[in-house]
Amino acid sequence: MDAAAQAKSVANPFVSNRVDSAWDAGPVDVETINRTAFERCRQTIELVRQTAQCRGLLLTGEPGSGKTHLLQRLRREIQRLGRDCFVYVPPVSGPDRFFRDLLQHTVRDLVGTRTGSPTSQLQTLLVRELLAPETRQRVTPALLWSDVRRRHAPGATLFRWLEGPMSLLCERLQVDPETMRVLRHYLAEYHRSDAYAWLLGRAVSDAALARLEVGRSLEEDADAFQALVTLSRLAGAHAVLVLAFDQLEGLQVRPDDRDGLLAFATGIARLFVECRNVATVSCVQTHFKQDLEHAVPPAHMHRLAQDQGALTLLDRSAALELVRQRLAAASELKLARTALGVHDPLWPLAQGDIAAAVPAGGIPARLLLNHCRDRFEVWRHGSTPHPAASTDALGGLWEARLAESAGEAADEGVMADGLLKVLDARAPGRVKRGTQRDIDLVVSGPGGEVGVAICHAQSMTSLAARLKRLQTIAASGKFKRLVVLRDERLPVSATAKTCRERLASLEATGNAFVRPSAEAYAAIAAARTLLAEAAAGDLDVNGAPVAPESLKRWLAGHLDATTTALLDALDAPVATPLDDTVARLQEALEGLWIVPAAELARTLDLAEAALLQRLATPQRLVGVLAGPPAVVFLRPEALERE
Amino acid sequence: MSDPNDLDAMLETALARVGEPLSAATVRKALPAGPKPSVREVLLRLTALVDGGRVHAWPGKSAKFSSVAAPRYASDQVLAALAQGPLTEAEIKRRVPAAAKPFVKTALADLVDARRVWRHPKRASKIRCALTPPDPLDHLPEEIDAVFKKLAKLGFSQEALRAALRRYAAADERKPATAAGDLVPGAMLRLNPQAAHGALVYVASLRAALADQFPDKATFDAAVMALAEQGKVQLQSHAWPGRLSAEERYALIDDGRGGYFDAIGLRLE
How far A210 CA lies from chain B's nearest CA (Å)? Predict the structure, then answer.
């Protein structure tokens, strides 16, 4: 095979046209591109360090102009210098889960070992806090941890050894002792998986809480917030915790939805009050800044966008440089150039053609890469490959996202946010976020409102407590019915008698307990990811961006039967009242006003205990006197109705 | 003259009538005819009026009092002098009352800062101040005369040079981009000072801010596109043009690719 033919068999160097996460290894980085925006990031971080005050930087840019790519560069720089910490935050899932989601990303990035470093950022931070400055110069975090682990075996021994230094830190930095204890478990590899789940704010079992010797989980947003503050303080007085928020557009259900944006800005403002070393870098599409300004009070906006910058579209010289560097990274092409005696570094593309593709005002990098990808194909095949029909191409993306979501643990926030968006796609305007505790979504229909509660708690104590609160909500009559969702992979323990009784009671009174399958969860999570990508302009098919509206239409026809059944269970119109117990009670009490519970239960063909359980929550028309013997009576409101 | 209130009123009236700073003895003389308080009593009352902010004491070797503060008095005198035409600082000093002379320099600096007085470019080795900004036309004839003399030595006739000058001036008026080169970045920085660091400004806001300079859509759009061609600005397109109303689209700039530029930024790299 000659050199030219060999060169034509290489992978197209322009196929990779996007960066999905700042933690991706990523393609060639041309540092002269978006140098100004990168400098802006550095300035903001330095200002946080110098003033010991949190700051927000808002970066705007057209889709495909390199926002995530820039965050990737920033992450690499922070890792290289080893001075600050970097956390990448794709869209968080909902207003009432802001801190839990943020904690989850912070823990994954700080506690877990990430690309480009042998130790976690947390280990580096602890080394900095624990070692004297002169020792710090000589010992790398990796070296220190390997030495510590050699001298103190991971497990209970290391856990005991870490107690002294970490207690000192706890006192000096005034941080949450429970979070520090669990971090100690994690570092000592002592009940490590329990510790990791706890730190992620996941629902953990009672047994795990006992093993970690802590009294609570971080499922409540307020607890997650405290843990976040602890992690920020651990970063120390001179290190900046950089929180990089990407695809903020994904916080919206529809273009006019403001709740998610407001919650985001409020959360950031609260974090800025409690911390001294946080720099936020928020990336949005250019037009989206206006939506933010409308949704967020000026004081919050000022914090979020105290510093502002923008991605720069490529001019002709920057475009040529990017193409040159992409081609230079393909070693086979380099060899072919040498063999063929070609000196043009842009070969097999043409400078004139690339320059002509750049309009006045500039071109987003992704558009340029798509153009070059097609030209490269023309060079080697004589024509661009026939593009897949856009629906087929979307199908491919859908399958890829489904595969990514299939292995994920069931997360309440992802499920709630995903259901909100998918239900809204099916029936725009009929679903909203719940505004009261324990209700995640409210679906309205002709028969009334359905309250949806997603209960993934692994601790049966937590689950029982939530079910009790849901019983109270159900009895209040605010919703026509409640739907309690619990992923089928999460069992309700056979010994959790109270949970089972409460679930049975809820079902007996016309509410539903639904167990979505793992497949349905994966579909909802995948749809959520794709919708966020589309909203941020990052979802393209054959080089053209897919609008969220088009994606919603596509999703409506491509969800499997299991997922559709789940959605039907939530937004099917409620035609008849499902809980008629109270109505039957009223009927039985007519003319009697007060009746022993046992007698009434017989009349209604119910067990006395079940009847009393049903009436355990306050009723507007019927009351119970505990007894013994227990008696049921009609309230004056019922008499007035008569 | 036993009632201090009456005396205070008479002292203030006397100072206001004279309008210039006076010593306590001179103020006493300016009081109405009849029995007068002693100089010491006048001095004490004037000092009390100064403390109460009703009379101003002027700085200087001997204590002087006035109904106006020294800087204000000096500013008024400077403005009165300049009302007759542009003057140098020395000329102003000669024209103001003696009491204002020590304060002319400071008053002039304050008036220039407040853009009530303009210092004109040096001409014939003198810098004049005036109540209006300098007019370049005052300076052009001698400069053009010098250029004409230079070009005449190269063989151009006066008529040919004048005709060329007219052609040059007419061509210059047809170049909106030259004006845009200054106007657009200036307006962007006023709308968002962080534009200096690359932050973007919405095209619709910029259009509104420059409505006086570019009253019609086509001129504004052409001026911005010319700046983009020159590599001075970058233009970013709206991600979802389909969501825009006709009115919103009209406020943006057609990007020639089925979309609309909705934001502009200074190109810094």
Answer: 51
Give the pLDDT confidence of B242-251 residue by residue, as tens digits.
888 888 999 9
d(CA A87, CA A102): 9
Give the residues across from A243 on adjacent strands.
Answer: A87, A280
Count A/B contacts: CB-CB distance under 8 Å. 89
Contact state of B197 with A36 under an 8 Å Cβ cutoff: yes
| ipTM confidence | 0.75
Same domain, A565 and A591: no
pLDDT tens column, A207-220: 999 999 998 889 88
Tokens linked to A537: 């302009």
Q: Which residue, among B240, B254, B261, would best test binding to A if mutated, counting the most A CBs under 10 Å from its CB?
A: B240
pLDDT in tens, A606-638: 778 777 777 765 555 677 887 778 888 876 655
Give the residue from A39, A105, A47 showing the smallest Cα distance to A73: A39
- Indicate whether A426 and A370 sit together in one domain: no
Among candidate residues A487, A362, A556, A498, the one with its CA nearest the CA of residue B233: A362
Q: Are residues A203 and A278 in the same domain?
A: yes
Q: How confident is the model at residue A390 (pLDDT cuts 50, 70, 90)?
A: low
d(CA B238, CA B236): 7
**Residue whose structure tokens are 């922070």:** A78
- Nearest by CB to B236, from A37, A308, A313: name it: A313
Q: Which of B200, B225, B255 shows the shortest C-beta gap to A310?
A: B200
* CA dist., res. A92 & res. A507, Å (int): 32
Contact residues, B window 202-261, toward A, CB-based 8 Å cutoff = 202, 225, 228-229, 231, 233-240, 242-243, 255-257, 261
For residue A634, the cross-strand partners are A622
Q: Assess B193–A contact: CB distance below 8 Å, yes or no.
A: no
CA torsion angle A413 A416 A420 A426 (round to 10): 130
Quote the CA–CA distance of A399 and A405 in Å, as a whole number.
Answer: 10
A184 pLDDT tier (thresholds 50, 70, 90): very high
The residue segments making up the domain with residue A487 are 412-571
Same domain, A444 and A521: yes
Q: Is the pLDDT of residue B173 over 60?
A: no
Same domain, A89 and A229: yes
Task: Answer yes or no: do B202 and A315 touch at CB < 8 A.
Answer: no
Q: Could A310 and B198 be called an inter-chain contact, meaning their C-beta atoms sit closer than 8 Å?
A: yes
Ordered DSSP codes for B190-255: HH-GGGGGT--EEHHHHHHHTTTT--SHHHHHHHHHHHHHTTSEEEEE-S-GGG--HHHHHHSEE-
Q: CA-CA distance, A47 to A277, in Å (whole number)? A: 10
**Is B198 in CB contact (< 8 Å) with chain A?**
yes
Same domain, A432 and A336: no
Three-state SS for A585-622 is HHHHHCCCCEEEHHHHHHHHCCCHHHHHHHCCCCCCCE
Taking contacts as CB-CB distances below 8 angstroms, the residues of chain B near A35 are 269
The answer to whether the Cα torsion of A49, A51, A52, A56 is positive or negative is negative
Report the pLDDT averaged over residues A71-100: 88
Residue of B nearest to A357 (CA): B257
Q: Cα separation of B56 and A437, whole Å? A: 68
